Amino acid sequence: MRSILEDSHGRKASYMRVSVTDRCNLRCVYCAGAGDFIPHPNILRYEEILDLMDLALRLSIEKVRFTGGEPFVRKGFADFLVAAAARFPALELCVTTNATLLGDQVERLAKAGVKRINISLDTLDPAKFARVTGRDLYSRVRESVDRCLAAGVCLKINAVAMRGVNDDEVAGFVELARTHPMDVRFIEFMPVGLENGWKDSAVWKAEDILAEAARYADLTPVDTACIKTRGPARMYAIEGGLGRLGVISAYSNHFCDTCNRLRLTSDGKLRTCLFSDKVYRLRQALRHPKLGIDAVERIIRKAGRHKPLGHELLERTPKDHGVCRTRMASIGG
Asked: CA dihedral defined by 252, 255, 256, 260, rounded to 10 degrees?
């Protein structure tokens, strides 16, 4: 029987997000993708990530999502994904990507068993995409979307909802979900990361998004209570549509009480809460000749027990200040 990572609030961790790099080929302002990158020797090797995944499986983790930065900028990432899928058939393996480098890999990854891909796409306007991301690569992203759909991949489009940026594009996103078998989800702009331009007035709240979306489609709430893979999104079926629309209200209506996530940064730090800068250093123990994986397990168990309630940290944060002072690209989302 597998061990359970349960914290003092009764939450059981079953989902780990693993960042494989803090580097990215885009320069989205809210992510602060530019800056001082983690030196290569401090980045976890693929073999080390596999060892940590093996331990995570023994500790009741059921789902692993790989992120960056942008994961596909790391050399050999697609090969690593294929190897991980073969080694851990019991784990649900997923990827979050900006999709600019995904296209040629889609069919191979789908065949290997990577069935769920999240694509970050904040705008459907090519010119605005270039302004928001600093790169004129919108056509590459849309090509990757088409290839995912053709390969039968379970696809989610994630858009960070920002006042004055994409709050005029609800109709387009609703139409995208109506005409394609995918989930389109708006994520509230969160006060996480250094110099990401966050302020309260920039937050486009979930209830306002839903009110706007209701102008363009009849939406019916989807009961996800019995769905094993349900997450923090509130999902809505679109009448006559192929896909669904969703909102993630991480700022205005938190879901900390049901959080089941742990985050592993690309330099081997474990974070138990997105809103906290508290980290547990795994890489040093993993590489130590007299410590190794047994010591790492003890650290993870301790971290799991002391997982905080993130909304309490958020409530103590001064207005218009970020609650977490680490670059989002370094955290892994």
From this structure: -150
Please count the structural domains in the chain: 1
Q: Please report, for the domain that includes residue 213, its CATH number.
A: 3.20.20.70
Per-residue model confidence (pLDDT) at position 108: 95
By C-alpha distance, which of 17, 75, 28 is closest to 269?
17
At 84, is the pLDDT very low, low, confident or very high (cuts 50, 70, 90)? very high
Q: What are phi and psi of 204, to 5 degrees?
A: -100, 105
- Provide the pLDDT for residue 224: 60
The phi-psi region of residue 291 (left if phi > 0; otherwise alpha if psi is between -120 and 50; otherwise beta) is alpha
Is residue 158 within 8 A of residue 185, CB to CB? The reply is yes
Per-residue pLDDT band at 101 (split at 50, 70, 90): very high
Nearest alpha-carbon partner for 245 in 256, 236, 255: 236
Residues 6 or more apart whose Cβ sits within 8 Å of residue 138: 126, 129, 130
Q: What is the pLDDT of residue 182?
A: 98
Q: Are 40 and 93 in contact (CB under 8 A)?
A: no
228-247: b or e for each residue (b if 16 or more CB lie within 10 Å)?
A: eeebbbbbbbbeebebbbbb
Residue that is written with structure tokens 């596909």 in the block: 72
Which among 32, 223, 281, 222 has a CA at the least distance from the CA of 134? 32
Answer yes or no: are the C-beta atoms of 295 and 285 closer than 8 Å.
Answer: yes
Please say if the pLDDT value at position 297 is more than 50.
Answer: yes
Task: Name which of 145, 65, 158 is nearest 102 in CA terms.
Answer: 145
Strands, DSSP E only, in the chain?
5-6, 12-13, 15-19, 63-67, 92-97, 116-120, 154-161, 183-188, 219-221, 234-238, 244-248, 261-264, 269-271, 280-281
pLDDT of 258 reads 82
Gap between the Cα atoms of 218 and 24, Å rounded: 37
* Domain around 21: 5-331
Reduce the DSSP state of residue 188 to 3 states and report it. strand
pTM over 0.85: yes
Confidence of residue 226 (pLDDT cuts 50, 70, 90): very low
> pLDDT over 90 for what percent of the chain?
68
